[in-house]
Design a protein that fits this description.
alpha/beta; binds flavin-adenine dinucleotide; 14 helices; seven-stranded antiparallel beta sheet; 21 strands; six-stranded parallel beta sheet; single chain; elongated
Amino acid sequence: MIIDLEDVESPALAAHYDVCIAGAGVAGIVIAKALAEKGRKVLLLEAGGKYFTDRSQDIYRGNVVGHEYFDLDVSRLRFLGGSSNHWGGWCRPLDAHDFEKHAHIDGSGWPIDIGDVAPYHAAATETVSIEPLPDDQDVAGSGGDLKEVFFRTSQVWFKDKYGELLANSENIDLLLRANLLDISLDPLTGRVAGFQYCGYHPDDEMLEVRADAYVLAMGGIENPRALLNANSQRPQGVGNENDLVGRYFMEHPHFDIGYYLVDQKRAGLGRERRFLAPTRQLITEAKIANCGIRLEEADAQTREMLLKETRSDLTAAVCASNAAVDWVKSVNPGFRCPSPMERPERVLKKLPFDGAGLLRSASEQVPCPTSRVSLGDETDQFGRRRAALHWQLSPLDKDTIRTSGLAVGRYFAEQNIGRVRLFDWVLDEQAGFPGFEDGEELAGNHHMGTTRMGSSAADSVVNGDCRVHSVDNLYVAGSSVFRTAGHTNPTFTIVQLALRLADHLAGLV
Ligand SMILES: Cc1cc2nc3c(=O)[nH]c(=O)nc-3n(C[C@H](O)[C@H](O)[C@H](O)COP(=O)(O)OP(=O)(O)OC[C@H]3O[C@@H](n4cnc5c(N)ncnc54)[C@H](O)[C@@H]3O)c2cc1C
C-alpha cells in the first residue's frame, strides 16, 4: 500500500510494525522487499513523493566547506527511488582485499569479509538486472602489478522496477512525503521507541511510528545528519558518544590523469574502454590504496588529433618525470630521452601506435577522521540543521593515483604496447589535486564512511551487523557503513549489505 501524506491528514497505519525504514532509495527498497518476502510487516517512510519536487530537494541543500565538491542538493535526489533516479548504473563488487586490514592504511579492516557478502552476489545481480560479472584477469607482462577489472551497467531505476511491488505488497506500507525528523529513545533501555516524522505543511503534526527494529537508509550524508540532529535526548546526537558520526567521509576521487598512445590490438583496445587496477601485490608493496584506471578510447576525430599532435609529446613522455626516467633506465640501460634535436619522425617510426585516448582514475580515498559531514548553522524548513561537508583528501590518496598511473605507463612501455603521458600535477609529489575550474569531474557522487562499521565503539558507529553500537534496535543501511571504499562504485555492495541486513533482521523480528 502507498499512502501520500499530502492526501491524508492522519494515515491509517498499523499500530506496530516489525521494521520501520526511513528512506525509500536503493537500500530502503531492497530491505523492505526482502523482509516482506519473508512475511515481515514493514513501514517505509519516504521524504519525497513519486517525482522530483523543489520543496523536497531543498532539504538536501547544505554547505561545502572543505575540498571543492558538488553542491549537496545536486549530488543526490530526494524522492522515491533516491539517487538511483539519476545514477550511471555502474556495478561491480568490492575486491576481497578491500575488506582486509592493510598495515599502511589507518582505519582499514572491516569486521566482516568478502565471505559475508558473497552469498548475496547473485541476488544483487538480479536486483539491479545485470548479466553475471566476469572475474578479474591478471595482466600478463605487468610483473604481477596490474589486473583487468570488469563492470556491468544497470539500467534499473529502483522506483520504476519496484514501484508496483511496493504498491501491491501486503506486507509493505510506503508513506510518501513523510520526513523523518527525530528518533525517540526509551529512557530506560536506550532503545529506539519510535521514529518521528512529519509532512510538509506548516500545520502538519509530528507523528510517530513504532516498530521492533528501525533502519536509517537515507544516503551517506543524511544518515549522519539525522543521527546528529536527533539531539533532544542525546545532546551530542544518537550513536555519537565517541564523536564519530559524520567522520571518515570518503568519495571516489575522479580525475583525468593523462593520455596514452597504444597499439590498439596489443593493448586489448579497439573497444570503448578498458579498466586496469593495481593488484593486492602492488597495493601492499607500494603502500597505496585501490585504484581503477580507465583507458577511454578517444572518438575517431580526437584520436587523429592525439596521434598527430601529441605523438612527439607522448614519445618523450617517459622523460616526463625522474621516476619514469629512472624506471626506463632500469629496464633498458641503453635508454636515452629523445633530444630536442632528434627528428620526431624518426622516433615515431619505431612506435607503430594506432590507438589513443584519455587515462582516467577513479580511486579509493583512505579513511580520514577530519574528512566529515557535520551540522551547519543554517536550518531547513523543519528547523533541522543542514549538512556541512568538509571533504578532505590526503597525500596517500595522491600517491595511489600517481603510483597506479605509473604502473600502467610502465607496463605499456615495457611491453612496447604504448606510451603514457601523465599530467604534471599527477607526477608532482608536492602538488595537490585540481578542482572544478580545471575542468575535472572530481568525484563519483558516492557518499561513504560517515557511520562506519567496526568491531569497537571506540572507532566506529555500527557493528558488523550494521547496528548502531549504543542502540540495540537501530540499524544503518547504505554506503555510510563502509569502513573503506575500494575503487568500485558503491551501489552493488550497498545492495549486498542490504540483503544481508534483511536476513539479520528477519532472524530477530
Ligand atoms: C549522478 C550520480 C551517478 C551515480 N552513478 C553511480 C553508478 O554508476 N554506480 C553506483 O554504484 N553508484 C552510483 N551513484 C551512487 C548511487 O546513486 C548511490 O550509491 C545510491 O543511490 C545510494 O543508495 P541509498 O539507498 O543509500 O541512498 P539513496 O538512493 O539516495 O536513497 C535515500 C532515500 O532517502 C530519502 N530520504 C532522505 N532524507 C529523508 C528523511 N529525512 N526522511 C525520509 N526519507 C528520506 C530520499 O528521498 C531517498 O529516497 C551515482 C550517484 C549520482 C548522484
